[in-house]
Predict the structure.
Amino acid sequence: MLGLDMALLAAKRQISDVVLFSGDSDLLPAVEAVKFEGVLFRLYHGTVQRPHADLYAAADERTGLTSDVVKAILRS
C-alpha cells in the first residue's frame, strides 16, 4: 500500500520528496515510479546490514541510521 501511495502522490504532483526507512527491494518499483516523476528519493538504512544494492543505487541521498542520526531525528 505504501508503494502505491508514493506512486499516486508523485503522479499527482502532490509530493516533491520521499523519505524511506528501509533496506529491502520490495518498494523499488514504487521508488523508480516516483523518481520518474521527478521526486527526490532519500533513503535511510541500517548500517549493520547493507540495504539492497538496487535500492541504494536509486537513492538521491543516503543516510545510515546510526544512534546519533536516530537521536537527531527524535529531537527535531
